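--- STAGE predict ---
source: upstream dedup step, 1 unique chain passed
mode: sequence only
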Amino acid sequence: MDLKRDLSVRERFFEVAFFGNPDKIPLSLWEIRPATLKRWWKEGLPYGVSASEYFRFDIYGLKSINIVSYPSEGFRWELSDTLVNLGPIPPFEYKILREDERYRIWIDSLGITQMGFQDDWRDGWSGFATRTFLEFPVKTKEDFEKIKKRYDPYSVERYPPKWGDMIKKLNERDGAYLVSVSTRGPFWWIRDMMGLEATLISLFKDRELIHEILELYIDFHSKVLRRALEEVEVDYIILNEDMAYKHGPMISPSLFKEYFSQVYHEITSFFRNNGVKVILVDSDGNIEPLLPELLKVGVNGMTPCEVAAGMDVMTLRQKYPNLIMMGGIDKRKLSSSKEDINGEINRVTPAIKMGGYFPGVDHAVPPDVSFENFRYFIDSLKKICGWMNQA
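--- STAGE serialize ---
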């Protein structure tokens, strides 16, 4: 490969991921949430313009198309006409059960009943909503048998009417962007059905049900996604888990080995056998105690490496030399001074230079970060990552 020329988006991604010789380092940039945008529109970001458009995430970030769709907790989900549908078919009916000026109680498309503040949802999701989960659809094996019918991998609606057009577009990309699958990991899959508390209790008191739910996870995803992986070359997978908090994982390494190691081995083997080279787990908090086992069962990347939880990229690099990382820059520093922003960027610069690392904010950018500070942060990071002469 002639590394004197500008690499394609796809070539550059793999050069960074596998410690090669990239011409530039793509930043790990994700869309800014509504509450933060509302502040920035008052501070200089043109009203109605997204941060990704203004800051050209399509040039400097991981320019990627995710080819799947599924519901998120709290939201109404409709079947996509271009993406592979991995949610319940039919979705649960989205319904507001009760509301007043301050609160609302509703059922989302996953069948989860929850209560939240009107201010977080009335005009659309604020991006940082606090909720109380009241009820989940699976409490018994009988409930699971009912919801299982909604996860028929052979439903004709899994592949939408415009899938053929999407495939044609993707296969003509010529390295201009990445193709990804961002979906639920097995822990999140159970949690969406049962809730966190019931999941953790059932790991000890209802092992049979947990194993049945995990069997469905493997069967469903492998059968649905096989066609997509045969029809288009997928560059990376993100398995969304959020299975840790500030001081450690929500489950112990021994419980992970008992329930999830084999599931991870099967799903990562399925992806790798279909040509996927990069498989990341997305989890907030300190997931480091689970990393040795995750690496053994086929995961080779981690995001967003949350600093407040002790997920320091330089420490992780020393312990796990081949680990692919995204994020890792403390979001709290972005609300401080430019000197603090410089210090944070300097802290991760050795990891940038070592490779295998896509630098970015370690979670969503909160609304206490000013527009000017974020602009300074992006410009400073672009310089470190070799984008100085990019228009």
